[in-house]
UniProtKB/TrEMBL annotation:
This is Beta-xylanase. Pathway: Glycan degradation; xylan degradation. Residues 1-348 form the GH10 domain. PROSITE patterns: GH10_1, GH10_2. It comes from Metabacillus halosaccharovorans. Its EC number is 3.2.1.8.
Amino acid sequence: EVPSISERYDNSFTIGAAVEPYQLEGMNGEVLKRHYTSIVAENVMKPINIQPEEGKFNFKEADKIVKFAKENNMDLRFHTLIWHSQVPEWFFLDKNGNPMIEETDPKQREKNKKLLLKRVEKHVKTIVKRYKNDVDAWDVVNEVIDEYASNDKGLRESPWYQITGTDYIKVAFETARKYGGKDAKLYINDYNTEVQPKRDLLYNLVKDLLEQGVPIDGVGHQAHIQIGWPSIQEIEDSIRLFASLGLDNQITELDVSLYGWPPRPAYPTYEDIPESEFERQAVRYNALFELYVRLDSNISNVTFWGIADNHTWLNDRAEQYNDGVGVDAPFVFDNEYQVKPAYDVIMD
Ligand code: G3I
């Protein structure tokens, strides 16, 4: 058995992995227990899985992950209370079943807004009450910034935004605080938090919300990164910037793709990936963890968006952009759970 990654980083931050319930068993389960002290659900705690129909909450799959975390003394991140993706349509339908975003009458729009905010409150309240003693960090809202949005603040023009402005964000955080208590650690989570103009758009929003008294404790940096992008300097600047607001930082969805964006061309199978790619990736992991340790007073958790290379959303992406044939290899364990050069460097 190889030494545990989380033990190695014990003095700095907890090390986590994203999981599907089926990964709690077998080899995945073994690797999880040995190397990670924190877990997060890759999908089963998202709105569409937790409240597929109005008022019909489904906690079955989520509970499996909560139970595993408890039994193995692991921290739990909750991902995610509010998001524009993987959210059921019913949230955005008015009392008559019509899409709220199509309403033109100002009075009716005001009513719809109230209704949607009540739904946000109920969703958040129900979940936070249920898991408040189990969850160590909440992704309260996910990906609310869109640097390509047509408004000058870069607010993602999701149905949440079109119907409520930024009130859905405020209500989500306030409700999480109200029912989670002051011990609930509340995060705003996003990708490309290192890259301009997105970094500053997120910063401006967070600063603004904090000034309005919205209870935000930290920023979640997804960190779906590449071997050469973004730069270590950009990553450092971003963490320091949010820390300057008095906030915690968590690295919430780390993976280091072998490719640029889009991931094309990709190696057709795992066996086609030359060892030199893993060496190149290890150099990146080395610089990254060196940085995280240097900033460890501002970083409380580093979570990989998966366990081993055999299960990663990046494999779906590699396939999708290469006519159905392509793999990626973003983690420190290979597709048979063996350690890669990246493991060796982060343990060194
Ligand atoms: O569960 C169904 C299954 O029944 C069906 O047969 C199958 C057919 O496509 O789809 C399954 O659902 C898939 C689901 O993952 C579970 O595997 C969805 O199609 C697929 O879109 C979904 O992808 C997830 C994606 O979020 C959705 O946007 C990825 O697993 C998940 O890794 C990814 O995670 C996101 C974070 O939440 C937020 N940040 C970005 C990150 C990567 O995209």
